[in-house]
Every structure is written in structure tokens, then in C-alpha cells.
Design a protein that fits this description.
This protein is an alpha/beta fold and 191 residues long. It has a single domain, classed as P-loop containing nucleotide triphosphate hydrolases (Rossmann fold, 3-Layer(aba) Sandwich). 58% of the residues lie in helices and 13% in strands. The protein is built from eight helices and five strands, in the order βαβαααβαβααβα. It has a five-stranded parallel beta sheet with strand order 2-3-1-4-5. It is globular and about 40 Å long. It binds BIS(adenosine)-5'-tetraphosphate (B4P).
Length: 191
């Protein structure tokens, strides 16, 4: 039973590694970014609200994001653990997750911090823009997303470090190399 978070700047490879780790740890991966994007493409009320924030490189408001995660974490398939990709991203989201877990008598096992420098991030996301045409992958929006990450999400690393939960992993190199680093780090912690 593993409860794991993947945290890191946009384009560090959270979504890419989440798919692999979810399989390796046999827990469902929950990506708030993916859930927002599928709501946008289905044109749901949540999708319409989220799109404006995402296109501007801003975070979707905490109330919408927290409601979404709260209901997802009450579904049956996460009873044996989960991997959260891209949540929490703000201090208010950390508080929400703490409340949800405490109510179920649970706690987190590990927070994997994926790191990559901003030049690599801009290069990866610009490439993704050409391949997938994501509306939040223009250089201007990417730079803004990096600023938002530094301002709102980077401070969470201290919160989780103080709880002894953070494992920092270099996100540079091939996808396989990064996966191998993460699995080795989890092995070391007996996860
Ligand atoms: P996310 O969907 O979480 O996406 P991301 O930060 O862009 O990227 P990620 O780190 O997952 O990178 P990926 O593996 O795709 O967020 C998108 C938006 O949703 C946010 O800006 C926000 O508006 C909203 N949102 C989501 N969660 C929220 C929350 N909790 N609160 C409020 N708002 C929220 O990799 C990026 C690219 O690099 C890919 O093209 C990939 O193929 C490539 N890549 C990956 N690993 C590589 C490697 N090792 N080498 C080379 N390329 C690599």
C-alpha cells in the first residue's frame, strides 16, 4: 500500500513518470492536469472554468481543484494507495490533502521531487507544443508557469522535507534513466 506524490516544475516529467510508477507500485495514478484536460475536451462545466486558467499558465482555483481531488480520493480503487501527479500545488491544497488523509486514518509515504532546469523545461515543452499542440505550451506561457511554480509550489518542498518525506530525483537524461533513478530511490526507502 503506497501513497505517493510526484512534485516538480512543469515539464519535469511528472506525467511521463507517473504512468510508469503507477504500474511499478500497482496503484492508480491521479493527474489533476489530465483530469482538467479531459474536462476541457468534453466541454464540461469544470472544463470551461479550468480552460481559461490553464491557457494563461495559471493554476486552476483551489476550491475547484480540491473538490475534484476529494471526490476522486473517495473512489474505491484508491483504497489500497495512489500516486498523485501534480497535486498538491499550493499550501491550501496541502491542507486539503492532509484533511482527506487524516479523515481516513492515512498518511503519505513519500514525495518524489523531480528536478529539471528551466532551459530543459522550455525545450521539452516547446517540443510538446509542436507534437501535441497544447495551448499552455507557448514559450510565454511556459515562462509564466515556471514563475507560478516558484512562487506557489516550490515552498511546498520545505513543508514535506520537514516531514522527512522528500526524495529528490534528477529529471534530466532519458525517460528510462529517470525511471531507474526513482525506482532505486523508492527501493532504498523500502517502497
Ligand atoms: P500538468 O498536466 O501537471 O502538466 P505539466 O506540469 O505541464 O507537465 P509534467 O511535469 O507532467 O510533464 P510531462 O511528463 O508531461 O499541468 C498542466 C496545467 O494544469 C497546470 O499549468 C495548471 O493550469 C493545471 N493544474 C494541474 N494540476 C493543478 C493543481 N493541482 N492546481 C491547480 N492547477 C492545476 O513532460 C513534459 C514533456 O517532456 C513531454 O512532452 C514529455 O514527453 C517530455 N519528457 C518527459 N520526460 C522526458 C525526458 N526524460 N527527456 C526528454 N523529454 C521528456
Amino acid at each position: 500500500m503506497t501513497r505517493l506524490l510526484l512534485i516538480g516544475p512543469p515539464g519535469a516529467g511528472k506525467g511521463t513518470q507517473a504512468v510508469r510508477l503507477s504500474e511499478a507500485c500497482a496503484v492508480p495514478a491521479i493527474s489533476t492536469g489530465d483530469i482538467f484536460r479531459s474536462n476541457v475536451s468534453e466541454g464540461t462545466e469544470l472544463g470551461v472554468k479550468a480552460k481559461a486558467f490553464m491557457d494563461a499558465g495559471r493554476y486552476v482555483p483551489d476550491t475547484l481543484t480540491n473538490d475534484l481531488v476529494r471526490s476522486r480520493l473517495h473512489e474505491a480503487d484508491v483504497a489500497g494507495g495512489f500516486l498523485l501527479d501534480g497535486y498538491p500545488r499550493t499550501a491550501a491544497q496541502v491542507d486539503e490533502l492532509d484533511d482527506i488523509l487524516a479523515a481516513g486514518g492515512h498518511s503519505l509515504d513519500v514525495v518524489v521531487l523531480l528536478v529539471a532546469d528551466s532551459d530543459e523545461i522550455v525545450s521539452r515543452l516547446s517540443k510538446r507544443a509542436l507534437e501535441q499542440g497544447r495551448s499552455d505550451d507557448t514559450e510565454e506561457v511556459i515562462r509564466h508557469r515556471l514563475d507560478v511554480y516558484e512562487e506557489q509550489t516550490a515552498p511546498l518542498i520545505d513543508i514535506y522535507s520537514n516531514r522527512g518525506l522528500v526524495v529528490e530525483v534528477d529529471g534530466l537524461g532519458s525517460v528510462d534513466e529517470v525511471t531507474a533513478r526513482i525506482t532505486a530511490a523508492l527501493d532504498e526507502r523500502g517502497i
